[in-house]
Amino acid sequence: MQTTKVFLPEVELPWFWYNILADLPNPPPPPLDPESGDPLDPAALAPLFPQALIEQEMTREPLVLIPQAVRQIYSLWRPTPLYRAKRLEEALETPAKIFYKYEGVSPAGSHKPNTAVAQAYYNREEQVRRLTTETGAGQWGSALAFACCLLGLECTVYMVRVSYDQKPYRRSMMEVWGATVYPSPSRETEAGRQALTANPNTPGSLGIAISEAVEEARKHEDTKYALGSVLNHVLLHQTVIGLEAMKQIELLDAFPDVIFGCCGGGSNFAGLAFPFLKEKLEGRALRLVAVEPAACPTLTRGHYTYDFGDTAGLTPLLKMHSLGHGFVPPAIHAGGLRYHGMAPLISALVDQGLVEAIAYPQRAVFEAAVSFARVEGILPAPEAAHAIRAVMDEAIRCKESGENRTLLFNLSGHGHFDLSAYDLYLKGEMEEDLPSSVELDRAMASILRGRGEQ
Questions:
Q1: Buried b / exposed e along 385-417 (16+ C-beta atoms within 10 A)
Q2: Which has the higher per-residue pLDDT, 77 or 441?
Q3: Contact predicate 388/369, CB 8 Å
Q4: 448 pLDDT above the threshold of 80
Q5: Banded model confidence at residue 245, pLDDT cuts 50, 70, 90
Q6: C-alpha closest to that of 99 among 242, 198, 307
Q7: CA distance 337 to 319
Q8: For residue range 416-440, what is the model confidence (pLDDT) as tens digits?
Q9: Which of 38, 56, 76, 349 is 20 to 30 A removed from 96 (C-alpha atoms)?
Q10: Where are the alpha helices (DSSP H) in 220-255?
Q11: Residue 225: what are its φ and ψ, rounded to 5°?
C-alpha cells in the first residue's frame, strides 16, 4: 500500500521554535507609539504581556527554546500527522502530489493551542492570574481556555457576536474548560458599549473584540492579554507545524513546490510556511500562497501602511496590510478570517514579493470543502477550506499543463462545530456577502484618522 500518512515519534517533537526575523534581509518596520509616532518602547507592552513574550516579540535569535513544560503539553497531540491526499489527486485527475499537515487532532480541534499553551505558560511563570482575549469563530478562544485550564489560569473571552450566535458549541467548549465568554460587542467594556451605541445590530468584528479584551486587561494588575495571531511571538510558536512537516515530507523523499495556508491574522499560514521560507531565502524554488476571504480582502485589496490592531485604537500602530481599523467584515462563516489587518511579518513578505496572496468568495470555498470531505473524509473548518480551494485550483492547473508539482497545505482545523454553515451551503441558502469598493474606501479612511500615514 502507498503511504497515506506520516507520523513522527514524540522524541521528534521540536525543541525550538524558528524565528524568521533572524533570516529576513528586510525585516518589517517597527511598531509605533500612536501618541509620539516614534518606534515603540518595548516597556509599553508590559501592561498587556509578560516580559518573556515581549522579549520573544523583539528577538532576532534564529531559534527560541521551547520550555519542557510546554513540550510536555504539546505531546498530548503533537507531532501531528502529515497526509498524502491520494484520493483527492485521483478525483481531480491531476499529476500533482498533494500533502496536508493536519492540525485538527489537537484537543481544541485546530492549530491554535500551539501558541495558547506557550502564552499561558509564560504568564503563569510571571504570576499572572487571568488572561483575556478575543476570538472570531472560537478556535482561538477554545485553545486559550484549554491552555488556561491545564496551567491553572482564569480565562475571559470576548467572542465576535456573529460567531457567538452561529457557533454556540464553541462557546460551550470554552465554558467546559472554565472560561467566561461574552458576545462582542458587550456591555462589559467601554469599547463594547461604544460599538453598540454606534450600531446596536452590529455583527461585531475581531477589531472590536480585541479592543474589549485589551481594555479589560489594562484595568486589572493581575490580568494580561493573549492574542491568537498577528504578533511575532504568536507566529513564532506556530512554527512547530512547519518544522515537523519538513521532517515528514523529507521521509517521503519529497519537497513542496507550492505551499498554501488560509490567512486571517497570519498564524496558520506562518506556522507552516516560515520554516520552508528559509529554504526559499537561500535560493530554493518555492511559491508561498496566502489565501484569504474575498469578504475581508486584507492582503489583496488593503493598504500596506500603519494602522491600529483594534477598532478602538488601544494598540500600537502596526505596519501591515489593512482595510482600516473601523472595517466590520460581512458575517461570513469563516469567522477566524474576519480581521481588518494582517500580521506585520506576512504583510512585509507580501510587499517584498516573497509571498503571494489570493482571495475567494465563501460559496467557492464551501464547494471545495465538501468535495474534499467526500474523498478524504475529514470535514474541514471553513477557514482551512480556503487553502483547500486554492490547492484544488492549482492541482487542476497542473492537470491542464501536465506539470507534476508537489503541493502542501495546512489543514488547520476540523469543521465539526461548523455544521450549521455546511447546512446552509447544502440547502443552497448560503449568501455571498462581499464589500463594495465604496465600503472599503470608507473603512480605509479610518487609517488616516489613526495617523496611519506617518
A1: bbbbbbbbbbbeebeeeeeebbbbbbbbbbbeb
A2: 77
A3: yes
A4: no
A5: very high
A6: 242
A7: 19
A8: 999 999 999 999 999 888 888 888 8
A9: 349
A10: 232-238, 240-251
A11: -105, 140
DSSP secondary structure code for residue 294 in this structure:
T
Please name the residue that has the C-alpha cell 486559550: 144
- For the beta carbon of residue 227, count every other beta carbon within 10 angstroms: 24
- Could you tell me which residues come within 8 angstroms of residue 406 by beta carbon, excluding any fewer than 6 positions away? 96, 97, 99, 254, 255, 256, 257, 258
C-alpha cell at 414: 476540523
- Reference 266, options 228, 304, 301, 297; nearest CA is 228
**Per-residue pLDDT at 7 exceeds 60:** yes
- What is the model's pLDDT at position 167? 84
Task: Assign 40 a pLDDT band (cuts: 50, 70, 90).
Answer: very high
How far lies 56's CA from each of 53, 66, 99, 327, in Å?
5, 12, 31, 30
Beta bridge partners of 63: 18
- For the chain, list the domains and their CATH numbers: 5-10+78-109+239-449 (3.40.50.1100), 17-39+46-66+111-232 (3.40.50.1100)
Q: Model pTM?
A: 0.94
Q: How far is CA 337 from CA 120, 124, 138, 261, 373, in A?
A: 23, 29, 11, 12, 21
pLDDT tens track for 193-216: 999 999 999 999 888 998 999 999
Q: Alpha-carbon distance 52 to 303, whole Å? A: 32
Mean pLDDT of 217-238: 95
For residues 101-121, one letter each, b for 16 or more C-beta atoms within 10 angstroms of the residue's C-beta and e for the rest, the string is bbbbebbbbbbbbbbbbbbbb
Report the distance separating Cα 335 and Cα 135, nearest Å.
9
pLDDT band at 6 (very low <50, low <70, confident <90, very high): very high
φ, ψ (nearest 5 deg) of residue 99 = -125, 150
Q: Which amino acid is at 295?
A: A
Pick left, alpha or beta for residue 152 (phi over 0 → left; psi -120 to 50 → alpha; otherwise beta).
left
65-77 average pLDDT score: 98
User: Number of helices and strands (H, E) in the chain?
Assistant: 18, 15
Please report, as a single letter, which amino acid is at residue 423.
Answer: D
- pLDDT for 101 equals 98
CA angle 376, 428, 290 (to 5 degrees): 50
The cell for 353 is 514579493
Helical residues (DSSP H) of 3-155, grouped into ranges: 51-58, 68-74, 86-92, 113-125, 139-151
The phi, psi pair for 392, rounded to 5°, reads -60, -40
CA–CA separation, 354 and 23 (whole Å) = 13
